[in-house]
Specification:
Organism: Cephalotus follicularis (Albany pitcher plant)
Number of strands: 6
Distance between the termini: 24 Å
Shape: elongated
Helix content: under 10%
Largest sheet: 3 strands, antiparallel
Strand order of the largest sheet: 1-2-3
Protein name: Chromo domain-containing protein
InterPro entries: Chromo-like_dom_sf, SH3_Tf2-1
Radius of gyration: 19 Å
Pfam family, one: SH3_Tf2-1
């Protein structure tokens, strides 16, 4: 998991950063904090979102606990739901897991036996 992404190429809000310069037609160089010094600071415009100042809007920014290789451990907070997936010859029990640093809309369905093995304290 990198930059708080869950899954392959899933964009995630990392923070507000100042644009230093326009590198090319669709790429920009950003002023990143020292905690992200190992990250290449040039981004494609599709990865950026324009900030519209709104005094009533308060951003809830949580700094990510990343290691030197920019990976961090995803930890589950709670189990939201259970269901059984019925295949032709077997059944697979699943649980819906809420992960740290993610909202309810990003909760994922995981195999119950895997979650019991790794995170038995949730059951």
């Amino acid at each position: 998991m990198r930059f708080g992404k869950k899954g392959k190429l899933a964009p995630r809000f990392v923070g507000l950063f100042k644009i230093l310069e326009r590198v090319a037609a669709v790429t920009y160089r950003l002023a990143l904090p020292p905690s992200l010094a190992n990250v290449h600071n040039v981004f494609h415009v599709s990865m950026l979102r324009k900030y519209h100042p709104d005094p009533s809007l308060v951003l809830q920014w949580e700094p990510l606990d990343s290691r030197k290789d920019l990976n961090f451990e995803e930890t589950p907070i709670q189990i939201l739901d259970r269901r059984v997936k019925q295949l032709r010859s077997k059944t697979i029990p699943l649980v819906k897991v809420l992960w740290q640093y993610h909202g309810l809309e990003e909760a994922t369905w995981e195999r119950e036996e895997d979650m019991r093995a790794l995170y038995s304290h949730l059951f």
